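Hi C.,

You asked whether I'd gotten around to modeling the 320-residue construct. I have! Everything is below, sequence then structure, no commentary in between.
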Amino acid sequence: MKKYTLEELIQFANDPNPRIRIKAARNPRTPAEILEKLAEDITDTDIISCICSNISTPISVLEKLFNYTDLDLKPYIYTNFHFLIAGSPNLTDEMRNRLLKADTSNIKCILAGNNKTPVHILEKFAEDEDWNVRNSVAENSNTPVHILEKLFEEKEENYTYLIKRSIACNPNVPVHILEKIAENEEYLGYPFDFWRNKKLPASFIEKLFEKRKLEHYDWYEMARHINTPVYILGVFAKIGNDSVRLGLARNRKAPARILEILSDSEEMAIRRNVAANPRTGIRTLRKLTNDKYAVVRKKAVKRLAKKQVNEKRKMQNWLI
C-alpha cells in the first residue's frame, strides 16, 4: 500500500468525493480519530467496509457499528454491519460470540475465513454441514495442518473437490497432501487458484511439469511462480509461447540470463516486464533504455537507477 503523509490522509478524509475518502478509510496509518469521524457516515457501505477491515480501527468504533440495526440504517441500506465486522482483524471475543449465536451460514463463512478466529472455532466450522463454511476454513491462512488434513479426508461428495482446491491454495498445506492433489486433475482444474500459494514446494511443481503437456494452459502460472525450478524456467524460455514467456518475465526469481533472452522478444509487454524485473541485469537494462516504446524505456531507466544505487551502496559497504 502506498505510503501517504499524515497531511495527505487528513486531506483525503475531508474530501467531498467518497472515492477519495476511501483512501483514508483503508489506510492503516490513518489516525484513530479520523477513522472514527469517517465511520459516522453509515450510508456509505464501501467506506464502512474499509474501516471494518482496517487494523487501526479502534474497537470502540467497531462496537458502535456492531450495534446498529436494520431500523437504524433504513431507508439508505437494508442490511446491518455484522457481515463486515465479522471479517475485521480487530473483532473482539464478545462480538464473535454474539455473531456465533446468530448461527447463519453467511456469518459463519466470514468468521471461518477470518485469520483471527481461534483454532477451536475453526475445528467446529470444519465439521459444519455447509460446504461453504468448510471451504472458508480451508482457505484460511491460519488454519493448522491437522484441520486441513481432516478436510482433505472428507468423503467424496458434491463440492468436496472445491474444498480440496482451496486446501491446495493454503500456505500451510503439507507436502503429502499436495502429492495426492497432484494426482487428481479435478483438484487442479480451471481457474488454477492453487498457483496463488507462494509456498508451493518445487517438488510439487516438478510433478506437474512432468505430468502435463507443454501446451497446457496454466504454463503461464508455472512460469511465473517463484518456486519453479530454474531448469523448468529454462525450458519455458525456449518455447515460442508469448503467454509463457510473459509469465517468465514477471517471475521475481528468474535468472538474469533468462531475462536477457526475453529482452529480445518482439512483444512489448514481455520487454516491459523484463525492464521492471529486479533480477534483470544492468547490461540488459541499458539495452532496454533504447527500446522503441517509451513505456519500456521508462521502466528500464527506473530499474537501472535503482540497480546503480544498490551497487554503489554495496561498494561503499565493502570499502568500509
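If it helps when you're writing up: The chain has 22 helices and no strands.

Thanks,
B.
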